[in-house]
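tool_log.txt
---
The assistant was asked to compare two proteins side by side. It first ran the structure predictor on the initial sequence, then on the second. Raw inputs and outputs are pasted verbatim so the downstream comparison step can read them without reformatting.
(1)
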Amino acid sequence: MRFLIFLLVFGWGIGPVHSDPLGDVQDRLVHRHGGADREYYLYEPEGLTSGAPLVIALHGLGGRAERLRYGTHLNALADQHGFAVAYPQGAEVRPTTSYWNAAPEPVGSDDVGFLTSLVSVLEHRRGYDPAQTYVVGISNGGVMAYDMACRAPMVFEAIAVIAGTMSGADWQHCDPSRATPVLHVHGTEDELIPWEGETHWLGPGDATPAIPEVVQFWAARNGADTVQVDRDLPGAVRFRYGSTRQDDLVWFLQMDGFGHDLPNLTNAGFRAVDVAWEFFRLRP
């Protein structure tokens, strides 16, 4: 039953495999980590130059990286703003279900290690700017983004979490060596990752916090002591947390009545990934 909690379907499909990271970047690539071949897709706009930003996009439970690249509008944003997008594939927990091991489970893929290694390879071999490397995580991918901020905070300069949360383990033990700017987008009627949190996450005693508590944790971690509220996005209230030294340390988009979904122009009147890129570009 727990495998259903992050389900966000972007489809399946197959494609050619090339060695990491050579070959046509529009095709499926392979990065070897921990003795296993891990797949990902890489999108580079034509004419992208060295020192460009990199965005890592993480699918939800059961999702497929190759379909995520068509379901988020990130490629079009990359064309418009000049950045690369990598879509890694989560490990298979069963033959038809992929996931990110963000709890983490004692037995399972080392996804912190995999993402850290993949980002390093892409930055060094393709020349992306480490100071402009970001992650967008959807559902289970959002849980993984928080896990990276907790356990490998030097990898990403900022994270965007859409319909995700912190795992019970991260909520209890997260103590990163540095702060990470956070954008969190969540619907108050999310039926799979409830607004009010859960008392049973992966088992008895593994509780997750309410979504506003997660946001407050990162606001405090980032040293935010001010908050501004605006309603410039349809169907959302945006809380912008900052401090006297820096604005926009944490953004929280509260979507009243919205469920477990990726906000886009059809279901919400705005694209969450557009807001994510806007947030990323505010980094000093």
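(2)
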Amino acid sequence: MNDYKVVKALNNNVLIALDDNQQEVVLIGKGIGFNKSKDSIIPENTVEKLFVLRNEKAQEHYKSLIPDLDENTLNTIISSIEIIRRRTRTILSEKVHVALTDHILFATTRLLNGMAIKNPFLTETKALYPFEYEVAAEVVEFINHSMQIDLPEGEIGFIALHVHSAITDKAVSDVNRYSKLIIQLIEMIEVQLRVTIDREGMEYARLLRHLRYTIERVLNDEIVQEPEKIASLLKSEYPTCYNLSWKIIKIMQQTLKKPVYEAEAVYLTMHLQRLITK
């Protein structure tokens, strides 16, 4: 069990402390800094809802955000991360504290200055990450109630990406990049097949998710077995969709800088053919 020795209280919710290895950490928790003086000992098991920030760069960035946060905003953000932890039942990547604090501070400041940001990928985020979106909706509802503000629906989409980042330990910038790649591929499919896919329809959601899981398999180096007989059948029966599948796979390979297995072309061809048939 780790005990933490207080170096300095930044405010009621954030402490600088030393762990058992004399490494500096940032402890984040509601009311954790209240009446704590230098050299106070904080046993880990007595602190409910404790977050520990160990990464040095993340610590410095987090400390730089603290002066811009009033007590209620910081409390709200800490509780929001607790909602994410409770709902996802995972140990969250510590990056989420910095990224989400940064994002919520930015979003609320812009809102109060009448400059709310539009989210152009809201439909896609909702379809790509349905569970994360559901958790983010709860977080936004909580923030609105706690801070008596009215964050727009687009914020649910932005926060959903942070939730996904926190539970998969991927950088938000990467999550964003893969989402944009998927949207680029869908636009290419529409042009090549001369179809317009209904953005609210089930087929769109299915295609988005198929592309998402293809990208995840590629990133995780998962080998997909190729059903050879089906491959040759699809190649002769549906040459347009099969060739388009290969174009998509080439773009994936260039963007992700990883090989994509041939079997992915087979499964993608089936999806594209279903689109044309519909």
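---
observation on (2): The domain at 69-175 is CATH 1.10.1790.10 (PTS-regulatory domain, PRD). DSSP finds eleven helices and five strands in the chain.
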